[in-house]
Known about the structure:
With about 325 residues, the chain is of the alpha+beta class. The chain contains 8 helices and 15 strands. The strands form 4 sheets. Strands 10-7-9-8-12-13-11-14 form an 8-stranded antiparallel β-sheet, with helices on one face. It has a 3-stranded parallel β-sheet with strand order 3-4-5. The radius of gyration is 37 Å and the shape is flat. It starts with 9 loop residues before the first strand and ends with a strand.
Amino acid sequence: MAAVEGPIPETAVRVPLTPEKIRDQLSRTGGTPFVCRQVMAQVEEGLSLPLSALNSLRRQVLEELGKARLAPVSRQTGEFRPGVRYENTRHPPAVTVSVRLARQVSPELLKRKPALLYLPAGEGAAHPEAVQLAQKYGVEVAALLPRVCWDSERKILDEAYAGDIIGVFDPGIFSIGDTLCMPKEKFAYEGIPTFAPEHFARVRQVDTMKRKQFTKGVQQIAQEGAIQIFQEFNSGMEEIIVGVVGVLQFDVLKYRLENEYNVEIRMENLPYEHIRWIANKDQVDVEKLTGTSDMKKVKDMKGNPLLLFVNSWSIGMTLDRNKGLELSEFSRE
Length: 333
């Protein structure tokens, strides 16, 4: 807070002083860290004051506010009141035991009456007799959740239980959403929906000698679900179209390709805003589809045909021109 005083207004000879003129002169704070939100001015009719006086008042206020801003904050002091003291409990410390193998649960251990015995969930499921032995001695057993395993601790497992973290070698055929089962248990869950992106860009690598790293990086990021990639309908990976839900995902793609795969890319934004999967692709000939001039035929990573549109009007026009064509906003394949 700052308060300053200036000269007393005099009787106006020509142009009297108005509240609007006062607000205009006092609200100027350029070159300072302050911003004027509101000026309230009260002035009697027929009075005058030089503009230099108003400017001087403004400079004095800003100077005082600057001093107050740099001044150390004053702290109030009061009567000291000691905190509440709590007495420590008189109970002896509790002992808990954690084991990794069921065979470590021995009568000698249980005779020491630990307050809690931690046993890995897999060991407890495979050796229920260890849990029964602990209960016989009156010791509570708690399931120990799986821990993170490092590469040096890898080993082949014959069985795994709910909650275990296992690693599976991927020869390049697995993707997010796949179901793994034993050969005799043949079934498949419905695929995870792939929702339509809203922004599209054509992506190329700057250095043509790094085509392999570029293709590998884009496919890996797409498998993680960060982006969706599409190709020209009758071409390969020579030209890649990337679709994202938010434009910030383009920045993520560019950063990861440059820092993880050492590939510099160039992106060209495309005007498309809508994408549709062809739901009845087996009943229609995609190459003979008739659409608008701004429609583009592409395919996804699994070879499914799709159509890109600039606006919703083009979607309706394409459906009218191709009787029996069914389009979907998302895919489950």
